[in-house]
């Protein structure tokens, strides 16, 4: 018989997903092409074919293959692959259109908490799609829609970290505590169905971890061949969330195991202790005897009966914690019908040589036994002896239900041994305390497994979200250039997380933004020890070494990066910084240009290139490089600063102020930018606004000598001599060997009439900077003529 096309396609799908899961993308592509040829009318082969191209990094082929169905939004998988290819190829509008047209296919999907080592969903859910749409809109320069998509993605899934970092990088104001918090919907996403698995440590019996494959499972695999992530031997029910067909197949499989267990109980009874029970306790779910069967403190048959009735009285509101005793919830009519069905099946299939008469007689005996028990409860008196006789009459037919090859006499001895304590127990209860016959023995209240699972999940989610919240606070504060707050948030992490490469890099960047280059270098050096192959943020590390004038360390770093990652822009930036520190500006420019060729979106490489052009006094080329950096990253304040410096040198003070102000609006806590604004205002003769800028800069960087010097000069210009003297005294301690400081002190004492102190500091300035001797001599001679002194040497 020839195989059906459906069976062939299902098998090829399994092979494709096998190779995809094992990262054998070439093999997956080969068989995806076979599947496309075998089943050209279906849309799923096209999706798998495009997916293989996407995994291989062949974005153009993925774009072409998925476009017919993806662009129109007909198949969600094709639309997803098509949008991913559009993002890589910078065809943002096409990707946005495809996802918008397929919105009805993904808007209500949510697979958070449904992924594990054995169960996954092949297609993304709404949060993943919204995050991709945000990236596409951001690339399309539609900031408003991009922010909306990222926010919606985070509302659905707070673990969508790249959506959060994208919002931070775009400069959006984010309330971190409102994002990373536990809510009922999040707990329910990770919650487990209480009936799917029970903790065996609490005295319950869990489902067996492995179930032999049945014929029905093979049929299901054929029907849903498009879903290779459906495990045939899943240990829990809650993991099977990949479609209605999967749930139906697993429910039928579950009932099949219960039915087969009942048949086994009707045909073979290896433990006579169960003869007095209405239903076997666990034969429907486990293929091995339950450990409860051999426990000496098991309740006798009437007690088991009472518990079952109590469970039935609870109705549908009872917690589904009894999946291992599903058989005990049957009604009396169902028991009779199922036992009769089991008898018919056994009589049809039995080949063990057991007499059919014994099977027929066993069912009326069980009915007589239960009837006798009920009558004993109602009549209370001498009828109990009649019930006892009825039970004794039920023994012989029950004892005939034996395993093939076992002797009837031995079974009879075991059964009679079990009967005696059972009858004695009933006699004691009836004569002592008759009302307690109807009640189960009191048990201490225990928390429900479902409640325990929910509590554990909620506690675990709270811990994870608290950790993520600290990381998010650190990243968000750094994106807002609130460096002190960022360091504080990252330092509150557990020590194990503080020593991870990502956290160390963020700490290094925070200190770098504060101009604490020595501290920043320590963090990056430690990060390099833990992750020597990490390339991210290496351009910042090389710039830190450039500021520290560590030529040897910088050259060694550049050599390592170029050897390990020749095609990375970070390596070429490090090499360019090494050439720049060696004052070979031409070689540095070549390296920075190579970095921009490797990654046209790498804004920092353009900025470094502009700095080298400024050093060569090539201002037009510098402006072009800075503008390219802004085009790559709108929030790259270094480029705005570079343009401002060029415009200031060219004498365009208004343009310089505008660019300095733009940079300061991005990074409001940078003392250098605020000082530059004050410098431009001072050159425009706006002394009081300049003084306010200098004062703010000094507050942000108290140990910045240049900023404090400019503040003292502005105070001296507006006649605030006492305040200027205080600033200069602090400045003298910060920079005792700076000639400009002593020159300004001499000018201050001249204004205060302190001629001796003035001449002293002028003399010190002359000794520290002999090149400025002419200006200092003119300042000393101006005492007699009372002429304003020129402090141009201080500029």
Brief characterization of the structure:
The chain is built from 40 helices and no strands.
Quick tags:
0% strand, 795 residues, 67% helix, TPR repeat, Protein bimA, TPR-like_helical_dom_sf, Serine Threonine Protein Phosphatase 5, Tetratricopeptide repeat, mainly alpha
What does this entry look like structurally?
By secondary structure, the chain is mainly α. Among the domains are: 257-291 and 299-438, no CATH class; 480-727, Serine Threonine Protein Phosphatase 5, Tetratricopeptide repeat, CATH 1.25.40.10; 737-795, no CATH class. It is 67% helix and 0% strand. Helix 5 packs parallel to helix 8 and helix 16 packs antiparallel against helix 17. The protein is elongated.
